[in-house]
Amino acid sequence: MEKEKRQEAKKECRILLAEDDVNLGKVLTTYLTAKNYIVEHANNGEQAYEMFCSKDFDICLVDVMMPIQDGFTLAKSIRKMDKHMPIIFITAKNMQDDIIEGLSIGDDYLTKPFAMEILLARIQALLRRSGKEEEEVQDYRISDKIVFNAPSQNLIINGEPKELTTREAELLTMLIQKKNEVLERSFALKKIWGDDSYYNARSMDVYITKLRKIFKESDPNVKIINVHGVGFKLVM
Q: Which pLDDT tens digit goes with each residue over 24-40?
């Protein structure tokens, strides 16, 4: 049973592939899809960043030399959103300075041409180290009085369950995962609502207000702070 669970987790692993070479992008997508990964291919750094903001990924494969936005800039933007996101650079740039810069931003650096089996082994190793290959949703302890059970969308307050809406639960999960750091408004809107339109932003503000009220009534030490012009921070 455990083996089946691990295999299923691997099947659901999502890869963001940022590669401007259309032919190589197709080859990589076909190969990794055959290995039971879900691959989203972007042709440039800007498109890749939009994909990252609107969908969930477990690992990013990033070419360095891309139009509109280069791979190093893309990786830095991804790191601002999720500092734990595994990133592998796949590039023809093999100078020592490039490799050092790549490894200072990302987690691995693979120079072209490379064997597909080597890339696959690097992906698997990085996913194992990051724990994403078998990642399971768990209870989040917000304070001594409050526990958030994500699967059931329940806040357990002093032992009593309080059910949240799906949007409230998704938003709270993101706040908890970025606890004591800023959750950028645009990033949260694109991840949960699909776009950062004015009306979706107003909806999110309503949910933030509801969560604030719950925390104020149950444990005032837990606060959601506005970071003007940027987003929100959960202090716990």
A: 999 999 999 988 899 99
pTM of the predicted structure, to 2 decimals: 0.65
Angstrom distance (rounded) from CA 27 to CA 114:
12
What residue ranges of the chain are covered by domains with CATH 3.40.50.2300?
Answer: 2-134
117-140 pLDDT, tens per residue?
Answer: 999 999 998 888 776 654 445 688
CATH fold group of domain 2-134: Rossmann fold (3.40.50)
